[in-house]
Amino acid sequence: MSDKIYSYQQLYQFALHVFKTMGCSEADAILATDVLLSADLRGIDSHGIARLVGYVRLWEVGRINPTPNIQIVHETPSTAVVDGDKGLGLVVAPRAMQIAMEKAKQVGTGWVSVKNSNHFGIAGYHAMMALSQDMIGMAMTNASALVAPTYSAEKLLGTNPIAVAVPAGNQAPFVADFATTTAANGKLEIAQRNNAPIPTGWAQDAQGNPTTDAAILKKGGALLPLGSEKEQGSHKGYALGSIVDIFSGVLSGASFGPWAPPFPAYVAMPENMPGEGLGHFVGAMRIDAFRPAKDFKDNMDKWLNRFRTATPIEGKDQVYVAGDLERIMEAARKKEGIPLVMEVVKDLEALSSKMNIPL
Amino acid sequence: MSDKIYSYQQLYQFALHVFKTMGCSEADAILATDVLLSADLRGIDSHGIARLVGYVRLWEVGRINPTPNIQIVHETPSTAVVDGDKGLGLVVAPRAMQIAMEKAKQVGTGWVSVKNSNHFGIAGYHAMMALSQDMIGMAMTNASALVAPTYSAEKLLGTNPIAVAVPAGNQAPFVADFATTTAANGKLEIAQRNNAPIPTGWAQDAQGNPTTDAAILKKGGALLPLGSEKEQGSHKGYALGSIVDIFSGVLSGASFGPWAPPFPAYVAMPENMPGEGLGHFVGAMRIDAFRPAKDFKDNMDKWLNRFRTATPIEGKDQVYVAGDLERIMEAARKKEGIPLVMEVVKDLEALSSKMNIPL
């Protein structure tokens, strides 16, 4: 099925209208739209406008509060815990990052753990907020459990992404943003749509055996941590996903592990949740809290240039640095528009009818 | 070839004597020995007493200063850059961690980037220093380039490990400590000794093709980032290794990327190094800078217990949490002694003769 192409502005106006209809303030609706569509621009289609219907459903069942009282509930000069008051993660996370950056301005670094939030879009957006302030930005979040730890038949972790953004001088910045699994769930969904098998190493079946079945999650299967198998280091990806869960969930007082709240509104909330809502962890480090900004940027340029000009293996044009492909995609999509698969188009059209908002 | 077993005390006295003979102060020699042998106890044999000969050789060629003036050269309330003055990383890193913890006591967290250092043993030791202070500890280091980024024919990164230690209440703590590659170089060395092939996904040959040749690094090959291949997420492992290099090297003013100083003393230093020596990055976060320590520990216990009691896949006894296997190994080796392969025994015996120190 072929894609339909929308301009950024078209999708922007639609999402903005939807968030305002949900009851968000003008400022919050703009922020949420900006965060949401940054995913589509950067080619992370699973986390962009395709999720808008999901946010609306969460709002409909009362799991998203469109007018949250986002507040600091505990703090020190370099840390805070923020209660998101069930707000959109798209709004709560940037506020938390703002607090982290304020603290970094004062004492060099700022670290904010967030509870009582919801899905926050792409981690990279929040980390990149630091770049214009000459700070290194970090963002991570826990998520509902789709991932089996090494040797586990049970799903205990989310895809728990980590983003780190590092400013540079003349070179484009370093922006890592990745799930701590071998492959994101969105890639399995694409394979399902195409009736294609998935590579081994992405998932296991309900008994923990390797599988190439793209629909295996619906049959009790699980995603695998980065590394795929123990012999290829899956215990390291499992450790990374664990760190994200602990920093985002345990440190803030959010729920965690298999008790992290699910994104689909039709999935019941876990019983006996040990904390409140979803958790995030964001941080900012002023580069001049370590060395003069110019010295850092000169060396960072040298680093970036060396990696970008490395000799590629045969059959590849060049070696990329984290964030390069997303930046190339963003430039293209700003110009040429954002292609959406027909399932997403249908979802948005249904939403358009239901909420009486032109698409 | 069978191993020879030494008691912890026997190896401890030998290493202590060696470090003192190198000119280290009593306190520094004790610290270096403690850090070095923590690797042997925890089963990370590649980073323990097997490296003692290597440290001595670096000292012999003047690349290790046994009486360094370790000092803070830049700081803010939550950050510092430490100049290791070419000291043993085994001594410099714990000092840096101490500074990070002091800052955490004052403002909630402390983050120290280190330049002009050398190999620091296992990252886990430094991260675990935080546990007794009810802090989360982190440690990472760059290292000489053995790893090819995704699509690169060149080796540009070290195995760049990350350690994160998280305190708990009644449960044993979470201690992640892992190279950001699929497999550590030590595992290739073991395969070489046994004339065994290595699994695919660990390394590539000089042209970037998959290989099972355990000696491939000597033939222009490279280790692969965690994830092995692009399709299995190697760009994520590459991003992680990059983050470690940037935080340890670029942020401190140490050397970085392909210019990181090599560990073997017979390998010439890279030309036009962009910074001073090897770099580390350590950090500490007070758990009560986020929420009351008891609340955190209660939830952390719940987290750890849930993962440790998860249903394992068939053929496996249980699901482990990061650090569990190392803790089990430590208990066993404290009781039963530390087995060393004959190559290492011969190295230590030669060192014993040369320095006239009884083994």
In short:
Chain A has 359 residues and is of the alpha+beta class. Chain A has helices at 8-21, 26-41, 52-60, 89-107, 123-128, 185-193, 234-250, 293-308, 324-336, 342-355; strands at residues 4-6, 71-76, 79-83, 109-117, 135-141, 162-166, 174-178, 203-204, 222-223, 278-286, 338-340. The radius of gyration of chain A is 20 Å and the shape is globular.
Word description of this protein:
The structure is a homodimer of 359-residue chains. Chain A is an alpha+beta fold and 359 residues long. Chain A has two domains: 68-182 and 231-339, Malate/L-lactate/L-sulpholactate dehydrogenase, NADPH binding domain (Ribosomal Protein S8, Chain: A, domain 1, 2-Layer Sandwich); 183-223, Hypothetical oxidoreductase yiak, domain 3 (Wheat Germ Agglutinin (Isolectin 2), domain 1). Chain A has helices at 8-21, 26-41, 52-60, 89-107, 123-128, 185-193, 234-250, 293-308, 324-336, 342-355; strands spanning 4-6, 71-76, 79-83, 109-117, 135-141, 162-166, 174-178, 203-204, 222-223, 278-286, 338-340. A seven-stranded mixed beta sheet of chain A has the order 2-3-4-10-5-6-7. The radius of gyration of chain A is 20 Å and the shape is globular. Chains A and B meet through strand 4, strand 7, helix 7 and helix 8 of A and strand 4, strand 7, helix 7 and helix 8 of B.
What's the topology here?
The structure is a homodimer of 359-residue chains.
Chain A: E1 4-6, H1 8-21, H2 26-41, H3 52-60, E2 71-76, E3 79-83, H4 89-107, E4 109-117, H5 123-128, E5 135-141, E6 162-166, E7 174-178, H6 185-193, E8 203-204, E9 222-223, H7 234-250, E10 278-286, H8 293-308, H9 324-336, E11 338-340, H10 342-355
Parallel strand pairs in A: 3-4
Antiparallel strand pairs in A: 1-11, 2-3, 4-10, 5-6, 5-10, 6-7, 8-9
Helix pairs in contact in A: 1-2, 2-4
